[in-house]
Specification:
Layout: E1 9-12, E2 17-21, E3 26-30, E4 35-38, H1 40-48, H2 55-65, H3 73-83, E5 87-90
């Protein structure tokens, strides 16, 4: 498994896109094989994953926006998506 750390620069995998279902009020990640529902916090993380920002920069931005962002939450979220082939990371 690929290791995700604070210096990693995540982005959605090329075959994945995020959508918002207004009727359900839910965000989801769509790929040819799966649909993964994510909460609004997950959507905020995904929106910041542009392969330019690092995991640490994304976490810092979320801390500016929200009252509580636990250490390692972004890293765990990105790692889970990398494991499910929904996200890719660049190192360095």
């Amino acid at each position: 498994m690929e290791i995700v750390n604070g210096a990693a620069r995540p982005r959605l995998a090329p075959h994945v896109r995020m959508v918002f279902n207004a009727a359900r009020g839910e965000y989801a990640l769509l790929s040819p094989e799966t649909i993964l529902a994510i909460n609004p916090t997950g959507a905020a993380i995904v929106e910041l994953c542009d392969a330019k920002r690092t995991v640490a920069e994304i976490e810092a931005e979320l801390r500016r926006r929200y009252d509580q962002v636990a250490d390692g939450d972004v890293q765990r979220f990105v790692t889970a998506l990398v494991t499910k082939h929904g996200m890719e990371v660049d190192h360095g």
